[in-house]
Amino acid sequence: LSCWILAGVVALAPPLAGQVTPRDRPAEVTDSAIAWGRALFRGSANCGRCHGLNGRGSGYGPDLADAIWWHGPGSYEWLVREVSHGIPENLTVTGDPMPARGQAPMNELDVRAVAAYVWAISHPPKPPLPEPDRVQ
């Protein structure tokens, strides 16, 4: 019985701080924004240089696709701010600062697209609702 109680408590507990739970996409995270953000991330925005071409990290920047954030909630708007303003060295995992906008000439739409891509790779999709049983 105590195993079942413990299992119920664990199932109802909120996620650990820094971890992201499956959820619906924000309205701004569209398929086209994700595609544009991916192209920027891997190219002119310079993100892939430190975070790897697929966002899985390197010795210079952490894994962005693991759904764990070290110093923030990982929300879309938070990601927009982080890409826009950068991250100071005292808040980074590597001790190296993340430059604002990757030291690239990105406009606001580019920043939002990169944030959409990072949000998409770091948030597992919400599982589909189960199909209701069909009566024939």
Keywords:
single chain, 136 residues, disordered N terminus, mainly alpha, 0% strand, globular, 5 helices, 39% helix
Low-confidence stretches: 2-20
DSSP E strands, number:
0
Tell me the distance between the termini: 39 Å
Mean pLDDT over the full residue set: 82
What does this structure look like?
- By secondary structure, this protein is mostly helical.
- It has 5 helices and no strands.
- The protein has helices at 2-12, 31-42, 47-51, 76-85, 108-122.
- Helix 2 crosses helix 5 (108-122) and helix 4 (76-85) packs across helix 5.
- The longest helix has 15 residues, at 108-122.
- The chain is globular, with a radius of gyration of 18 Å.
- The model is unreliable at 2-20 (pLDDT under 50).
List the helices and strands and how they pair.
Layout: H1 2-12, H2 31-42, H3 47-51, H4 76-85, H5 108-122
Helix pairs in contact: 2-5, 4-5
